[in-house]
Amino acid sequence: MSIAFTPWPRALAARYRAAGWWTDLPMTEMLQRQCRERPHAPAILCGEREISYAELDRQSTNLAAWLHRQGLRRHDTALVQLPNVAEFYIALFALFKLGVAPVNALFSHQKLELSSYAKQIQPKLLIADRQHQLFGDDAMLDELRAISPELNLHLFAHDTLEAALQNDAELPAGAGPSDAAEVAFFQLSGGSTGTPKLIPRTHNDYFYSVRRSAEICALGPHTRFLCALPAPHNFPLSSPGALGVFHAGGAVALAPSPEPLACFELIEKHQVNIAALVPPAVALWLQAAPGREAQLQSLRLLQVGGASFAESMARQVPAVLGCKLQQVFGMAEGLVNYTRLDDGDDIVFGCQGRPMSDGDEVKVVDEAGHAVPVGTPGMLATRGPYTFRGYYQAPEHNARVFDNEGFYYSGDMVVADENGYLRVVGRVKDQINRGGEKIAAEEIEHLLLQHPQVAQAALVAMPDSMLGEKSCAFIVPRGDGLRAVALRRFLREIGVADYKLPDRFELTPALPLTHVGKIDKQTLRAQLAAAAGA
Ligand code: J2J
């Protein structure tokens, strides 16, 4: 049975096809084409390995054939957790070739996140890394099996995965990708709710976003892209990211992290000409670059997105790094905005771009849902040929974040200008954006409330000069003697990703309330901002 998801209405789907946005081709097509046109060109540069398109194709077919022999079939699902290594893309194409839809968890994810994804998709396959602390032994595998009883296939990098990639095998007739209108994989939502939500992305919609992004960024066979953000993240995967590079016939150089000195070496070694970063990483690059300009000579374009980027820092990029800046405001749910390569300085430095597609419909509305005038802040709502129509198996949440015309409310406050360029000016969703990593306040509050000595909990953003925002948990304790270290240890033991651990705990006898009796986070944020300013 194909994987259930909320489809686009028929009339819109017809429009997206008529416009040529949806091509009804699966994403495996980009690999096939490069195998015809430039089989020996490098696709992936990983450590000392240079993997050509032919090799990417061969290894992904081998893996797909192995998985097929073990009984994996079209419309099955997989949980994948790999770091920034070539195997991430090889596995992704292998699963596309079989029509198996993965959730690609971040390498920073821990027990809680993996368990939640497994619960939602009931995977039959796990691909993970023995070098991840969770998979040094089989305890986590057993836990995942208890959550997903049909999970009877697993492959580990640094263990069994390598052999499955190298044993030459053919895919049998009948095996092949899912239909382009079906779910290709699940993207991860930054979220604002108690459980991390999944975003079904179809071949048609995602492939379009990749092609259009590659076009806007003028990618081609000359492209050398540095992937230094977590590879599964929507930005370095599709905006235009690694998939955009494969579509264009260029090469992706993998860095384990955005740490500047290692990245600068890779830029020099591989003659990288485009890189994608979140703002805190840009700050580190700007600090590290003086005196190292020679290493950065090949760099033509730096894309920055994921969190708000100060104009003063944006203006330093060309002078200090010697390349053009492109601002990117996107979301794993769909809509991606870019400043264009030929936009003037005021636009490139002063806003977050405009929608990439003529098919993107954007509304900026007030609380009543009425459009606000140009230049006025309002909530962003959008629909279009690559913006999803519903989170996976989440009808109640979907009812809250979509209106009856199918517009998705991203929770961002934006200001649009007369040409449709957007500036992100705030947020209405209950989320902390910790240097591009998103934390759903409710998720962490629910976990804190499981501690017997926590009576009330509220997680709010606090300003941070490096990350933009960090998280602060206000706690009303039950009884005496509760300490921050105990709470941090408690969250660690539950198995929550490190970036979600509150940076600060404030124990307080009571929390301020709004007039309807909800915790008044605005007051808490103002307290933190005042304390930071003092
Ligand atoms: C301010 N806030 C931003 C920006 C995203 C490309 C680029 C980024 C993402 C991403 C992505 C921002 N300025 N330039 O998927 O394809 C905040 C907004 C948004 C949320 C989405 C892509 N760029 N944001 O960051 O799904 O609040 O995607 O709604 O992780 O990040 O987060 P995410």
TrEMBL record:
Gene3D superfamilies linked to this entry: 3.30.300.30, N-terminal domain of ligase-like (3.40.50.12780)
Residue ranges annotated for the AMP-dependent synthetase/ligase domain, each copy included: 31-392
Superkingdom: Bacteria
Pfam families named among the record's database cross-references: AMP-binding, AMP-binding_C
Pathway per the UniProt entry: Siderophore biosynthesis
Key words of the record: Ligase
Sequence ranges assigned to domain AMP-binding enzyme C-terminal in this UniProt record: 443-518
PANTHER family registered for this protein in UniProt: LONG-CHAIN-FATTY-ACID--COA LIGASE (PTHR43767), SURFACTIN SYNTHASE SUBUNIT 1 (PTHR43767:SF10)
The protein, known as: (2,3-dihydroxybenzoyl)adenylate synthase
Record organism: Chromobacterium amazonense
